[in-house]
Specification:
two-stranded antiparallel sheet, 8 helices, alpha/beta, 247 residues, globular
């Protein structure tokens, strides 16, 4: 069986991040390598045999920031990585729909450019395949960004600082998809989590893999600093230990 393709969505402007750093989020340094290379390495460790990065308005900046070469991930053969530009006004689903169906084939890994996890992505691929679904989503329960108070009238009966989410599951931004997802994308502006997801759910074509292990999203410069600090303390073994680079 051929290896699945790895696809990274990097078409956004990353305004919340770039406004503070001057860098597109995908190029933010994580342990001396751009964030996007860590995401690509995660997909390679999950089984991807080639990587395609879907860019938008920041295509030139990402190309200049990454340079050229094959992706080297410790313990894996060099992996071909391609940057593919599409119109800046496309939604995430619309950007995905620019790919040929053959690239998605019978299974591909898809990730946003700002999420890292130690989740078993081979299991995500296997779940989608076994359920014959068009999409399998990684579902996570991250720590809440606020302290949670339990109240009885005006009396605080309990308080927990930034506890894990105890109800519901969050979209982890990592998916296994097949070409069967494409008919559920109807317009170039559509975002994957909105209309296409609703159609997939209605057609019983969406499943989820629960993951209680490590998961991090880099939405802000604070997230970026925290991730680098945790990596420096070796607190996240397995999430970004590959030290990816282009050769």
């Amino acid at each position: 069986m051929s290896k699945p393709h790895g696809i990274i969505l990097a078409g956004g402007d990353s305004l919340r991040f770039a406004g503070a750093t001057g860098l597109h989020k995908s190029l933010a340094p994580i342990a001396d390598a751009p964030l996007i290379l860590h995401v690509a390495a995660m997909l390679v460790r999950g089984g991807a045999g080639a990587i395609t990065v879907l860019t938008g308005a920041a295509h030139a900046a990402i190309c200049a920031g990454l340079g050229t070469g094959q992706l080297q991930v410790r313990g894996h053969a060099p992996t071909h990585i391609t940057l593919r530009q599409s119109a800046p006004d496309l939604g995430t689903a619309g950007r995905l729909a620019t790919l040929p169906a053959a690239m998605l084939g019978e299974g591909a890994l898809l990730a946003y450019t700002d999420v890292l996890s130690d989740a078993p992505l081979a299991d995500l691929l296997a779940l989608r395949r076994s359920r014959q679904a068009a999409l399998a989503m990684l579902a996570v329960q991250p720590d809440m960004p606020w302290g949670i108070a339990r109240l009885q009238g005006d009396k605080i009966t309990d308080f927990t600082e930034k506890p894990p989410l105890d109800r519901g599951w969050v979209n982890g931004g990592i998916f296994a998809v097949s070409a069967a997802i494409l008919p559920h994308i109807h317009a170039p502006h559509e975002m994957l989590e909105r209309e296409p997801m609703a159609r997939l759910i209605a057609a019983e074509q969406a499943v989820a893999l629960r993951h209680r292990g490590i998961w991090r999203a880099v939405d802000t410069t604070k997230d970026h600093a925290r991730l680098n600090d945790d990596l420096a303390r070796a607190a996240l073994d397995g999430i970004a230990d590959a030290r990816p680079r282009l050769i």
